[in-house]
Design goal:
By secondary structure, the protein is α+β, with helices and mostly antiparallel strands. The protein contains three helices and seven strands. The strands form two sheets. A five-stranded mixed beta sheet has the order 3-4-5-6-7, with no helix packed on it. Strands 1-2 form a two-stranded antiparallel sheet.
């Protein structure tokens, strides 16, 4: 179920790119096709609340693209900074683009408005397992680094106390 299209039923003529009218629509007005994914069902009210629209193209968890003989991966591994974190991996360069899921060294937690703090560390653990060959790690903000950024982020959002 890789194709997801959502839109409001108020005056958009089935056009998923039209801006949502926050004054006349509510989350129950979304029509979602070809997805029984919990993540998609959770996104509809968030997108509506913020006045955003759905992307015209999507994928279901994992997308691999061959660009000039090089493999580029986009993957969803779980919740963290947002419930729909997508990371990118360029195999040839062993470069992992973590976006706001990954923090630069010595960074604070930052904006947690849409975050799932309890899931964040586990998602980064899954990221480490999915891309063990990654050498370069690029956070959403700040300086790039190595795999230590993954460990720093895991520790930052870990529920463990210093005595555990």
């Amino acid at each position: 179920m890789a194709c997801v299209i959502a839109f409001t039923i108020y005056g958009c003529n089935n056009n998923p790119t039209e801006t949502i009218n926050q004054t006349s629509a509510n989350a129950s007005d979304f029509i979602i096709y070809q997805s029984d994914s919990l993540i998609i069902k959770q996104l509809a009210p968030i997108l509506h609340k913020k006045g955003n629209v759905w992307a015209q193209n999507s994928f279901d968890g994992l997308l691999k693209v061959n660009l000039g003989g090089d493999t580029v991966v986009a993957q969803y591994l779980g919740k963290g900074h947002t419930i729909d974190n997508i990371v990118g991996y360029f195999a040839k360069d062993k470069a992992l683009f973590g976006g706001c899921l990954i923090k630069e060294m010595n960074a604070g937690k930052g904006n947690l408005e849409d975050a799932s703090v309890k899931d964040w560390s586990n998602t980064v653990e899954q990221l480490k397992l999915a891309f063990p060959e990654a050498i370069i790690v690029i956070p959403g903000h700040g300086n790039a680094g190595g795999r230590k950024l993954l460990d720093y982020t895991i520790d930052l959002f870990s529920e463990k106390t210093p005595n555990q």
